[in-house]
Amino acid sequence: MSTEKVWQSFKELVKLWRIDRIPSLAAALSFYTLFSLAPILLICIVLIGFFLGEASVQGRIIDYISDLAGTKVASQIQTMIENSQEVSKSKIPQIIGIFFLIFATTRVFAELQNGLNRIWGVMPKPGRGWFNTIRGRFLSFSMVLGIAFLLLVSIVLSFTLAAMSSLLVKMFGGSVYSFIILEYIISFLIITLLFAMLFKVLPDVILDWKDIWIGAFITAILFTLGKFIVSYYINHSNRVSMFGAASSLIVILIWFYFSSQILFIGVEINKLLVLKKGKIIKPKETALLVDSNRPNMKNIS
Which helix (H) or strand (E) segment is 59 a member of? Predict the structure, then answer.
């Protein structure tokens, strides 16, 4: 691809970013994520804890978050998880507590689905309110289970590599850093798979996997590179500390907002690639196209 075509695609992507009001979508998703992340992680810890132990899983998840967003964000999220655990141990009836956790974990995915549908120019069919709500909640909770499974795979692979690295170095030579690099590669591939799952399952449009992988891969690259920028900004910016007692909340919101922007930009990349191939956006049976936001190349060229 020539430099001119790359530049043209970049300008089209920026125009899509502006037309679809990605900053507003990212802000809304960040707000819901703030209240949903701790319950999501708590459910993942409980599910994976059956196999590996809750304390071990929680420590590993916090390490992941520390690598992604820095120690400040990881510390605040650890506090949120611990507070959620205390609430789950309170005298609140168990059924009500479980219902609240499920509602909290699925709300952020419902908001994410709304954002993805807006980008693709589709909406749920009217007159099926309860059906769409139940279907959306079930789909959202399925995503939570999918994330828990990916975390389980990642943790098992990390433990396996850590246990085998010293032995394999003695047997075949080389450096232990090779296994550290391998662990980072596996982590990157899991992040790519997670983005691909979100892009494929959540929006109410029919998409081929081959139209998703490029966007998921680019999104994972942007997410991986951008985390260093956000982490540096959070750890060195004086603007964060000026909020005083609320600075911890601001730190988490900054990370959520950045991550949401990257995720929606990845969807825009997928949308741009699909439109450039001349494909027609086809909604699922439960959705329909919105004329005012119907995606086509004339809107962005």
Answer: helix 54-69
